[in-house]
Write a structure and sequence with these properties.
Length: 237
């Protein structure tokens, strides 16, 4: 194949002529055509050399009106004057839903006062602080032993009194959680749980050795369950 810009004649089946504008461009030193015109002429020349007819201008595909006809048929089947929306279609065969939300009633002065007192009580009497209060006498006995106890007990670090104090903390914490202390909603409920925990522990455990007696442990557990049932019936828990 010979480059179309050369002076030799291009041999093709059908003779053709170089466009006039392109011929003038080749003869002149400087082109007078714009870049767009030059590219257009070059494209025409390449199509002629390859014996390919020019591409016809694209035509738009015929529009499919089948969907439009179906929609028009559906709209014509609906009764005139009726507007169908997503909301009407959803509630067409069901009763209207009424808004159950209501404006909250304002609290009375007495209710606000009780709420403030309860919030303050919770801050001042958390679970761990209430447990420490119930075991405060055993803690004091342990500290006195360290400073004023017998020499033999102090040499052993007052282990017996310390172990009894630690056991009190564990038992009291278990009772408070058993009654679900943190979920109470009134000061009376908090005070009742503290009283039950303290009274049951002091009733069955007078010294450290009592913690290892199975009979006392069984009675303690039985009465603890009975106290919880009584508490639930009394406060409606």
């Amino acid at each position: 194949m010979v480059w179309p810009f050369s002076s030799e004649k291009i041999q093709t089946k059908d003779d053709f002529r170089i466009p006039k504008d392109l011929d003038e461009l080749l003869k002149q030193e400087e082109s007078t055509l714009s870049e767009r015109e030059f590219k257009s002429n070059l494209k025409q020349l390449s199509e002629l050399t390859n014996h390919r007819p020019l591409d016809p201008s694209p035509t738009l595909a015929p529009k499919d009106d089948s969907n439009a006809e179906k929609q028009s048929d559906l709209q014509s089947s609906e009764p005139k004057g009726k507007i169908v929306t997503a909301k009407t279609a959803l509630f067409e065969n069901s009763p209207l839903l009424h808004d159950s939300r209501q404006d909250p009633k304002p609290l009375t002065q007495e209710q606000l006062k009780n709420a403030r007192e309860l919030s303050q009580y919770k801050r001042e009497n958390p679970l761990h602080a209430s447990v420490l209060v119930n075991c405060a006498d055993l803690q004091l006995a342990f500290l006195n032993c360290l400073t004023e106890g017998k020499f033999a007990e102090r040499m052993r670090g007052c282990n017996v009194k310390n172990n009894f104090y630690q056991s009190c903390l564990n038992k009291q914490s278990m009772i408070f959680k058993f009654f679900d202390y943190n979920s109470m909603t009134s000061i009376k409920e908090f005070e009742e749980i503290k009283y039950v925990a303290d009274s049951l522990f002091t009733k069955y455990y007078q010294c450290y050795d009592d913690l290892f007696e199975e009979e006392k442990n069984e009675k303690f557990a039985k009465e603890l369950r009975a106290k919880r049932e009584e508490f639930h019936c009394r406060f409606g828990k």
